[in-house]
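Before any further analysis, we paired sequence with structure tokens, yielding the entry below:
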Amino acid sequence: TGTSCADATAQGGHYWEIRASDAAPGKTAGDPWFGDIADIAPTGTSYTTDANGRGTADFAFDSGTGLDDNVGRVVVIHDTYTADGGDYARVACGVLAEPAPRGPYCLIANMAPSNGDRYGTVSGTVKICFDGWNSGAGANLEMNVAGLGVSTSGGVHIHTGTSCADATAQGGHYFESRDGLGSKPDTAAGDPWFGDATADIAPTGTSYTTNANGLGTANFAFDSGHGIHDNAGKVVMIHDTYTDLGGDHARVACGVLAS
């Protein structure tokens, strides 16, 4: 619980949130820092040392506290367990610091005409960015593509394909099916690539707009359930004017996402 390594008092004791959870015998529920407690410390919270005294550990734990709560807290390393003949003394200490700034990490697709070259001069980029390389699924898409239809609106989506060769290679919408996340009626839950997808996966929609010169722009957040690694190599599709605006929503530009 402490915020300084000055002495044992400043270091405090185990830091966790009391919860109706399993515990080691005689210990408070929710404390993962004892023994092997499956729901909060599946493989224990121990380190081991080699013949040179180098200690290593790699384990999951659930203390009931998040990142912000842990910043500034101390980490204490104890000596050999009493059960193994040691005295379990506090032998090392350090203070957890603010995380270093992350990302954003981005993938970029260079867009080109697709499927019949309706707009033969299409050029520009679509970029998707994540806060961290190993971040969760939420991302932001930014589009800046010239040569499209004038003064209109359509969809810009990530598809399952890895080539722009034809519609089959491009595939369909790329997303992870997830129950409980909103989407267009009669489509798989979790698909953000429809204009009426709900705010939990597409807060402001997934559309672009063009100006009188055919320059298409977009800047929106989306959650397809896939992170940056999954999206690398997938294609981005730009569709023509929405059908409810008098268009046919055809695939008119394509590009492959790369770092």
Q: What stands out?
A: The mean pLDDT is 88. The longest helix spans residues 8-11.
